[in-house]
Amino acid sequence: MAQTGNFKSPARMSSLGQGAAPASAGAVTGGKPREEGLKGVNFERRGFLHKVVGGVGAIVAVSTLYPVVKYIIPPAKKVKIVNELTVPASEVPDGKGKIFQFNEDKVIVVNSGGSLTAVSAVCTHLGCLVNWVDADKQYFCPCHGAKYQRNGEIISGPQPLPLKQYSARIEGDSIIISKA
Ligand code: FES
């Protein structure tokens, strides 16, 4: 059913004797002029609240994402670079080889008949660690069968390069490992 008139029209209000003044142009609901209605709004306060809410949101986002990113991208290991590494001689008995962390490399020190040698233990094929096989007087890579001589030169296998050579010497009860 179509509405035939405005219930709050000035004519109707005056005819009802309610005394309501007609709304002026620009009035807002509730009877206040638009300018007066906006007077109560503190725009500085509203802007401040937006900034606070945005800041809190940013903090929550960062605190949530930071551990995830740290998990995905582990921190780089800080290796202390030294010229020499001293280890107890008793750790490499005759006929054995032992791997030590030396700077950013892993070095295998071999004691064979009282003679010491040291080469990188990292196979130049795909990076597995080699073992010393004293019976054969050679290094053997368990991953794909690479074989190296005692000085690191290639015997056979898929590896493209020899093992990097290091120096190892006895001083008292210690073995001193250094660059060759
Ligand atoms: S990683 Fe050593 S032979 Fe493949």
Task: Walk me through the structure.
With 180 residues, the protein is α+β, with helices and mostly antiparallel strands. It is 24% helix and 28% strand. It has helices spanning 10-16, 34-39, 43-72; strands at 84-88, 96-102, 105-112, 115-120, 131-133, 138-140, 147-148, 154-156, 165-171, 174-179. A hairpin with a 2-residue loop joins β3 and β4 (115-120). Bound molecules: FE2/S2 (inorganic) cluster. FE2/S2 (inorganic) cluster is lined by residues 123, 125-128, 141, 143-146, 157-159.
Strands, helices and their partners?
Blueprint: H1 10-16, H2 34-39, H3 43-72, E1 84-88, E2 96-102, E3 105-112, E4 115-120, E5 131-133, E6 138-140, E7 147-148, E8 154-156, E9 165-171, E10 174-179
Antiparallel strand pairs: 1-10, 2-3, 3-4, 4-9, 5-6, 6-7, 7-8, 9-10
Bound molecules: FE2/S2 (inorganic) cluster.
Bound molecules: FE2/S2 (inorganic) cluster
Average pLDDT: 83
Q: Spans of 5+ residues with little confidence (pLDDT < 50)?
A: 1-7, 17-28
| Number of helical segments with 4 or more residues | 3
Q: In percent terms, what proportion of residues is strand? A: 25-35%
State the separation between the terminal residues, measured CA to CA.
102 Å
- What structural class do helix, strand and pairing data support? alpha+beta
Largest sheet composition: 6 strands, antiparallel
Whole-number radius of gyration?
42 Å
